[in-house]
Amino acid sequence: MNSKLFIGTLSFFLLFSCDDSSQDNSPTELINLIESNQGKWEASNIGTYIFTYYSPPNDCPTVDPFPAVEITIVNNVITNLYVVELGEILDLGSHSFPTIDDVFENMINSVNDIEGTPSFDDTFGYPVNYETDISDLECDGYSVTISSFI
Length: 150
What we know:
- By secondary structure, the chain is α+β, with helices and mostly antiparallel strands.
- It has one domain (22-147).
- It contains three helices and seven strands; from the N terminus they run H-H-E-E-E-E-H-E-E-E.
- It has a seven-stranded antiparallel β-sheet, with helices on one face.
- Helix 2 runs antiparallel to helix 3.
- The protein is flat and about 40 Å long.
């Protein structure tokens, strides 16, 4: 009788220990999630804002990532790039960083490479965090974190 109880308990444990939440969403589900939040962002009609953008490679242990950059947007145009960690203002002409609209476009364009479920701001819908990985090779993925939104 003890062996039946053990096998039953083991079967129950194995059955319920499988976690489907670790599976990636389908591209259609991700596009729907992204577009839903993009709609919330666009409905907010925010053209002037500041946020901190950080995008390190997430699968490249030998690379030192560029520090987070505070990006200032005025009337939907980037007007200032400031690296808080270094105390430096970056030249707009020689550096390329995204607006929130650009981040949404990048997410849609790389939807097949997004891992897991991206997170979005509850109020305005902008992306808060997501990760990509193109293949099993190193140094072909990145994460994006948006914080300190004003």
